[in-house]
Amino acid sequence: MILSKFIDELPIPPILKPRWKNQFYTYYEVNMTELRQSLHSQLNDTTVWGYEDGYPGPTIEVESGEKVFIKWINNLPDKHLFPIDYTVHGAHRDVPDVRTVVHVHGACVEWESDGYPEAWFTKGFKQVGPYFRKQIYRYDNCNHACTLWYHDHTIGITRLNIYAGLAGFYLIRENRERSLNLPSGKYEIPLMIQDKTFNKDGSLYYPKQPEKPIPELEMSITPKFIGDTILVNGKVWPYLKVEPRKYRFRLLNASNTRFYRIKLDSGQLMYQIATDGGLLEYPVGLKEIMLAPAERADVIIDFTNLEGKNIIMTNDAPAPFPGGDKPDPNTVGQVMQFRVTLPLSSVDTSTIPAHMIPVPKTKEQSVTRVRCLTLNDNMDQYGREWMLLDNKPWDAPISENPKLGATEIWYLINVTDDSHPIHLHLIDFQILDRRNFDVEKFNKEKVIEYTGPAMPPEPQERGWKDTVRANPKQVTRIIMQFGPFTGLYVWHCHILEHEDYEMMRPYIVIR
Ligand code: C2O
Ligand code: CU
Predict the structure, then answer these.
(1) What is the spatial distance between Cα 21 and Cα 19, in angstroms, rounded to a whole number?
(2) For the chain, counts of helices (H) and of strands (E)
(3) Which end of the chain has fewer beta carbons closer than 10 Å to its terminal beta carbon, N or C?
(4) Is 291 a domain residue?
(5) Ligand 1 centre distance from Cα of residue 296 (Å)
(6) Would the pLDDT of 1 be above 90?
(7) How many CB atoms lie under 10 A from the CB of residue 479?
(8) Residue 8 included in any domain
(9) pLDDT band at residue 391, thresholds of 50, 70 and 90?
(10) How far apart are CA 468 and CA 40, in angstroms?
(11) Range of 396's domain?
(12) Structure pTM?
C-alpha cells in the first residue's frame, strides 16, 4: 500500500508535566496503554501502544543534575499486537506475553533504574522478571545537555514493543547550552524517524516469519525488519511549515533495523551541533548525515531566504545496511517535507556558534584494560541467523566486568557483513578509530591483521557517543571510563531484531 506523502502535518509530542515537583526532586508517572491513533489521513486509525496515551510518548524534559523519579506503569492489555517467537531467549511460554520495562537510552543512571531487560513487569506489577528491583525509577541526570530517548527494553520482545509505539524523547537541558543562543522554543523540534508497514485495514504489520520461513515454527523471529513507509513523530511522511529562519532539529533513528542517510533535496548544509551524548566542540556542516538505529544528530537547518520553497528530507541508505537494496526514491527514499510558508514572526537572533563546548579526549595512557570483542554471525538449530557478541549468548557468564572508574578500550571486531550499531548502557564513549582487517585470517588464526590505515571518526562523531556503527570487516575501537555507578548493565546491537536474538550481553561495573 502506498500512501500519499506530505498530506499530514508533523505532530510534536507534548512535554510531560510532573505529578509533583519541589526544590529537591521531580516525580512523574507514565502510563503505558493501548490506543487508536491516526498515523495518516488516508488510513483507518491504527492500534498502537503509547506512553500517556500517545505514540511517540510525551517528551520528558529535565535539567542536568535534577533528581527525577518516574513510575512507569504498565496498563496494557494481556494480548500482544504482534506475533511472539517463543523460542527466543526470555520470551518462552512460561512468562506472560505482555511485559514491559523502560530504559532511558544514554542515561547515567543506577542499574536498578536502568531498565535491565530481565527487570520487566506486567500490568499492576503482578508479575515481574528476576532482576526487577523497584517500581519507581530514580534518575540522577548526571549527563550534560543532550538528546536521550526512552523506550521499551524487555528481553526477547523489545523489537515488538518498540514497534508497537513504546518510545519517546528525554531531553536534558543545561545553562551552558542555553548561553549558546541556539534556536529554541518553537524553533527547536525533535524528529523521531521510523519505518513501518501497514495492513490494508490500517493496522501495523509485523512479519510472523522471516523471508525464508521456518517450517517447524508457527512464529519465528526475522533477522531484520524493513518497513515500506516512513514516519516521523508517528505520522507517515509528514510536512512541517517553517519560518524563513534557523531551526534546531533533534534527529533520532528509532527504527528497528533501517539506517538512514539523511539529505536535503535543496542541497543545503545541515549544521550538526550535537551527537548522542551532547554538544560537539564545533558545529559541522554536512550534506548528509548517517543515522543507525538509536543514533541521534542534533542539527541546525537555516531556512533564511527560502520563502515559498518546499524542501524534502531524503534518505538513500541501503536497507539492510550496507549490503541491501537502495531505497526507492519515491517512497522510503523520502522522510518528510519542510514548507517555508510561515511569515517570520520576529528577527532571528539565534546563532550557529563557532565554538560550543570543550570535549576533552579520554587519555589512552589511563587505560587499564583492553578487550577484544567479536561481532559474530552464527546459525541456530533451525538454520536461522544468530548474531552474537564475543560468540556468547545472553546467558553465558558475565565476562565484561570493568572496575568503577577504570578506563578501557574495546575493540569491536566485526566479522559479519552487516554494520551493527553497538550501544553501551550507563556511559558515553569516544570513538578512537576504525580499521579494515583480514577477516579470513582472523577466523582461522584469531589474530588481527590490519589491511589498511586506522581511520579517525568522522568530524561529527568526535563527541560523546553511546552508539557506534561497527562496520563490516572493520575493527572499531572505542574508549570509555566506567562509572559513576556500579552494577549490572547491558551492551548490545541496537538493530532490534539482533538485540532480541541474542546480540546483547550483560556487563557489570564492579567496585
Ligand atoms: Cu536504546 Cu539498550 O538501548
Ligand atoms: Cu546487529
Answers:
(1) 7
(2) 4, 31
(3) C
(4) yes
(5) 13
(6) no
(7) 19
(8) no
(9) very high
(10) 32
(11) 364-509
(12) 0.98
Q: Are residues 29 and 59 in the same domain?
A: yes
Question: Rounded to whole angstroms, how far apart are CA atoms 324 and 330?
Answer: 17
| Residue entry with cell 565554538 | 355
Q: What is the pLDDT of residue 201?
A: 97
> Can you read off the three cell numbers belonging to residue 127?
508479575
> Is the distance from CB of 27 to CB of 18 less than 8 angstroms?
yes
Ligand 1 atom nearest 106 alpha carbon: 1
pLDDT-derived band at 2 (thresholds 50, 70, 90) equals confident
For residues 393-412, give the mean pLDDT: 98
Q: Same domain, yes or no, for 332 and 368?
A: no
Q: Are strands 278-286 and 270-275 parallel, antiparallel or unpaired?
A: antiparallel
Q: Domain count of the chain?
A: 3
How far apart (Å, rounded) are the C-alpha atoms in residues 461 and 280?
A: 9
What are the residues whose beta carbon lies below 5 Å from ligand 2 (ion)? 420, 493, 495, 498
Is any atom of ligand 1 closer than 6 Å to the C-beta of 425? yes
Cα separation of 494 and 496, whole Å? 5
Amino acid at 43: L
Q: From the CB of 153, is ligand 1 less than 6 Å away?
A: yes
Both 306 and 382 in one domain: the answer is no
In the numeric block, which cell numbers belong to residue 404?
A: 568503577
